[in-house]
Each structure stands twice: as structure tokens, then as C-alpha cells.
Write a structure and sequence with these properties.
about 140 residues, mainly alpha, 2 domains, globular
């Protein structure tokens, strides 16, 4: 499980790079109104990051637990997307709580909140999303 956790951290860095790059492209080249720049662009970049990190999870981290069929891929993607939305909500709640209780600098609070949401994402992936299916044994 430790090896998968390290791979999961690498996946997170890759996802952050993709998310940031897509956000930069969208806000620099395509979207210029307030709504498209501050609401639509981050939502799109976040979802692209989710898909990229899911592909990394599916084909690299937990590749021995999947069936590698279209229906298996899509089913797990829906669960993964749902888990990461919950993870985002956890991050926002923890960030606000830490900032309110300790009055830390926002970036420090964000890093701590990312640890909590990242642990949730890892355990959701390890124990629920990428459990070995009957046909992949």
C-alpha cells in the first residue's frame, strides 16, 4: 500500500500541473469575462485534472485490479469523480476551519487541508474505487 501511496502522490502532482496548465490556457487564450475566467475555467481545468489523474490511477497505480474494458473504465471514473468532489468539499471545510481556528496564512491552511483531502482520496481509491473485481482476479 505504501508504494501505491507514493504513486498516488506523484499522480497528484501530475494532476496539479495539468489543472494549472489548462486553467492558464483557458484564461489566457479563450475566456475573458469574469464568469468564464473565474468560474467556468477553473471548473473545466479541475475536471480535466480529474480525468488525467484517473487515467494514471487506472493504468498505473491500480492496473492489476481493473478489467481494462470500457464499461469498467467508465463505471470507476464515475465513482472516482464523485470521490474527488467529496475530497474537494473536505478540503474547503478543513481549509476554512484551520483558517478560522488558527488564523494561519491561507497557503499553509491550504497545504494542511490538501493533506486531509488527499488522504481521503487515497483511501477511497484504495478501498472502494479500485477494489479488485471478480472478473479481474
Amino acid at each position: 500500500m505504501f508504494r501505491n501511496f507514493i504513486k498516488f502522490v506523484i499522480r497528484g502532482v501530475a494532476g496539479a500541473v495539468v489543472d494549472t496548465f489548462v486553467l492558464w490556457v483557458l484564461t489566457t487564450l479563450f475566456f475573458h469575462s469574469y464568469f468564464t475566467k473565474y468560474v467556468l475555467s477553473p471548473a473545466i481545468s479541475y475536471e480535466v485534472g480529474i480525468v488525467v489523474t484517473y487515467i494514471i490511477c487506472y493504468y498505473w497505480i491500480w492496473n492489476n485490479r481493473v478489467n481494462k474494458g470500457k464499461s469498467d473504465f467508465l463505471r470507476r471514473l464515475i465513482y472516482y469523480n464523485f470521490a474527488l468532489i467529496i475530497s474537494l468539499i473536505i478540503k474547503i471545510i478543513v481549509l476554512a476551519a484551520i483558517n478560522e481556528i488558527f488564523n494561519f496564512y491561507i497557503l499553509i491552511s491550504n497545504l494542511i487541508a490538501l493533506c486531509f483531502s488527499g488522504l481521503f482520496s487515497f483511501f477511497a481509491s484504495e478501498k472502494f474505487i479500485f477494489i479488485k473485481s471478480v472478473s479481474s482476479k
